[in-house]
Specification:
Layout: H1 9-50, H2 57-60, H3 63-71, H4 74-87, H5 91-105, H6 111-129, E1 131-134, H7 138-143, E2 150-155, H8 161-169, E3 177-180, H9 189-195, E4 199-200, H10 208-223, E5 228-230, H11 248-255, E6 264-273, H12 279-288, H13 297-313, E7 321-326, E8 330-331, H14 332-335, H15 341-355, H16 360-368, H17 377-388, H18 403-416, E9 420-423, E10 426-429, H19 434-442, H20 451-454
Parallel strand pairs: 1-7, 2-5, 2-6, 3-4, 3-5
Antiparallel strand pairs: 6-7, 6-8, 9-10
Length: about 450
């Protein structure tokens, strides 16, 4: 027992290393996790005191626990058995596939990342690119929703900046959970997006097992009170108009709704821009008839870093106005969960259209569309004043005395963007830029009908 045993140095180092790992995993790591968990809980309690809608416990659940709860859900278990039977595979193989789907979908929300890093980056990026306007009734709409209801923001999709803009503007309300496409499954972007609470969706998946896992996650999140952000159009608009809604996520929400439990309140959100950063990429895709955008992640990162660098140097160049307005909220309990989901989707899209902010750049494009001859700035100013007078509640430049200034700024923005040019006779659309004019004019054309030609 007291004899000396000689061993090689490498073996001694290996034994000490294994002992250190065992000690840390059994004694040190649990204590460290408990310590940081307590600090996190205190931080979340302080954070909830200033949020309009506090973060629900469901969103703070550990990702591992959420995955386990999802794959052992009775409805998912039945679908696993159906998948195994229909595909002639063992149930344990189907179970592992369901687990893989759950790991792909379930986020790993971090309150520190969302409110400490995400919202600050969103605020810095948005303010470096746009001047921001919010609808005058936005706060009133949020305050009118019962505290025990789950809020689902239904948004039109104009730009990838929509995520950033909504995160920035909703930072005082709650933490939103978005459904994002496969474009975001790029490391390290995917990890950051998961920590922001977003969940990934396979847009082209038609497998019943995948749809069931996704549906149950969405329904669990809704039942848990997690605020959601949904883009029902399913993709970016290629022509500036609102696109027909896709019914997938709305169907999951409606099918999982329990009238005896908490209500679900949909808040229509209308988003519009003086300039969409991806406009020409989207227009080209629409002209080709596909959705292959060809934008590289390196280009996006370079642009974002360039804007941050401009902000640090105090040389920010903005691309006009970004506007977001809330429409009339819709309670699923009052609307009726048994009504067709198509009717629900159409109602929400109409409310988005009714709340669409009327920005001066789209209005000027609306007036310049199909005009063969140049138009003077004075004539455009008068036409904008006559056209937008009844729409002052959805227009940032509601003061008609400043219309001439905003029209001048809009023309300068369009000139810098290479869309219009000034001649001795007035302003006209540049050759081959009619598609860009149509793209911006389409965003608010439904607000005017045939009145633009009269103006």
């Amino acid at each position: 027992m007291t004899q000396v045993v000689e061993i090689p140095l490498w073996l001694f180092v290996l034994i000490v290393l294994f002992a250190a790992v065992t000690f840390a995993s059994h004694f040190l790591f649990p204590s460290v996790r408990w310590f940081f968990r307590r600090r996190l809980e205190r931080a979340v309690r302080r954070l909830n005191e200033r949020l309009t809608r506090p973060i629900e416990p469901f969103k703070l659940a550990r990702r591992y626990d959420m995955i386990q709860r999802l794959i052992y859900d009775p409805e998912v278990s039945r679908e696993i058995a159906n998948h195994a039977r229909s595909n002639n595979v063992p149930e344990n193989v189907a179970f592992e596939r369901a687990r893989a789907y759950a790991r792909e979908i379930v986020p790993s929300f971090s309150a520190f990342t969302y409110f400490g890093l995400g919202t600050r980056m969103a605020r810095l990026l948005v303010r470096s690119v746009y001047s921001v306007w919010t609808g005058p009734r936005n706060n009133e709409v949020i305050q009118s929703i019962p505290k025990d209801a789950t809020v689902v923001f239904i948004m039109n999709h104009r730009s990838n900046m929509d995520y950033v803009l909504m995160t920035y503007l909703a930072a005082q309300t709650s933490a939103l959970s978005y459904a994002v496409g496969e474009w975001a499954r790029v490391w390290p972007l995917s990890r950051l997006i998961r920590m922001m609470g977003a969940y990934f969706i396979r847009r082209k998946s038609r497998g019943g097992l995948y749809r069931k896992v996704l549906a149950r996650y969405v329904q669990m999140a809704i039942a848990g009170g997690v605020a959601q952000g949904i883009f029902p159009e399913g993709g970016l608009s290629l022509n500036g108009r609102l696109m027909p809604p896709r019914l997938g996520l709305l169907t999951y929400v409606r099918e999982g709704y329990d009238p005896e439990a908490r209500d679900v309140v949909f808040v229509p959100v209308a988003i519009n821009y003086d300039r969409v950063l991806e406009d020409r990429v989207l227009i080209a895709a629409g002209q080709r008839g596909d959705r292959r955008f060809g934008a590289r992640i390196s280009v996006v990162v370079k642009f974002i870093l360039g804007k941050f660098w401009q902000g640090l140097r105090g040389r920010v160049t903005r691309f006009g106005m970004a506007a977001m307005a809330f429409g009339e909220p819709l309670s699923l309990r009052e609307f009726g969960a048994d009504r067709p989901v198509e009717e629900l989707a159409d109602t929400l899209m109409h409310r988005i259209a009714d709340a669409m902010p009327v920005l001066v750049v789209p209005v000027v494009c609306h007036l310049l569309r199909d005009r063969a001859l140049p138009v003077s700035e004075a004539a455009l100013t008068e036409a904008v004043r006559d056209l937008t007078g009844p729409l002052s509640d959805t227009m940032p430049s509601a003061d008609l005395e400043t219309v001439s200034e905003t029209v001048c700024d809009a023309l300068v923005q369009l000139d810098k963007h290479g869309v219009v040019e000034k001649t001795s006779e007035g302003w006209r659309v540049r050759p081959d830029q009619e598609a860009v004019i149509d793209y911006y004019a389409n965003s608010i054309a439904h607000r005017f009908g045939s009145s633009a030609s009269a103006a």
